[in-house]
Amino acid sequence: MEVAGRAEWLRRCVHIAVGIPAWIVTRETAMTWAYACFAGAFFNTLLLSRVPVVGDVTRVVRGTRGTILYPLVIGVLLVLFRERPQLACVGWLALALGDGSTPFFARVRSCAWPTNPKKKLIPSLLGGLVAGAGASFVIDAKIAFPACLVAALADAIPWCDDNVSWPVLAATVAWGMST
User: Fold this and answer.
1) pLDDT score for 3
2) CB-count exposure of residue 1 (10 Å: 0-12, 13-18, 19+)
3) Integer distance in angstroms from the first to the last C-alpha of the chain?
4) Which of 75, 119, 128, 131 has its CA 20 to 30 A from that of 153?
5) Whole-prediction pTM value?
6) For residue range 9-51, what is the model confidence (pLDDT) as tens digits?
């Protein structure tokens, strides 16, 4: 495996692992996690590139925009849905598990999205299913799966950053379905 391949694999594993706290957020701890997300965005802005190995992975593979947007968007969702943090957690898990796992399905034969030739249809939907399975532990599966599958459609949007579209779409759909 070449260095860029290993770096991308490591980056995706971190992307997924950062979603683990979404399973333990409660109404009482939502704001604490939001503050942690904002602190993470601040840390990633100023210091992440100086951390050995991890800093190299983010700098070489993708730059830092995603490392700032990821915690920032999740923090905003936790603030917006602080009374119903499970909705924010659906968005968090869509980003962590869905967007994070999609590249692992890249070898699956599939056509590209008509609007975004850089992304494949089947891997995106498989990522949405993985996210729906994970999110069904924080909210009813009848809400989790549709919300995460709609978020997977975010891969069809070429001009929108995945670190924004996946969580915002999933949380919004979960909110709409649960009201």
Assistant:
1) 39
2) exposed
3) 48
4) 75
5) 0.88
6) 877 888 899 999 999 999 999 999 999 999 999 988 887 767 7
- The DSSP string of the chain is --HHHHHHHHHHHHHHHTTGGGGT--TTTHHHHHHHHHHHHHHHHHTGGGSTTHHHHIIIII-SHHHHHHHHHHHHHHHHTTTSHHHHHHHHHIIIIIIHHGGGGTTS--PEETTEEEEEHHHHHHHHHHHHHHHTTTS-HHHHHHHHHHHHGGGG-TTS-HHHHHHHHHHHHHHHHH-
Give the number of domains in the chain. Answer: 1
Give the structural domain span for 66. 3-178
Which conformational region is residue 109 in: left (phi greater than 0), alpha (psi within -120 to 50 degrees), or beta? beta
Structure tokens that stand for 52 in this block: 């050995």
CA separation for the pair 133, 19 (Å, rounded): 13
Predicted confidence (pLDDT) per residue in 73-111, tens digit? 999 999 999 999 999 999 999 999 999 998 888 888 888
Amino acid identity, position 93: L
Predicted pLDDT of residue 54: 63
| Residues shown for the chain | 179
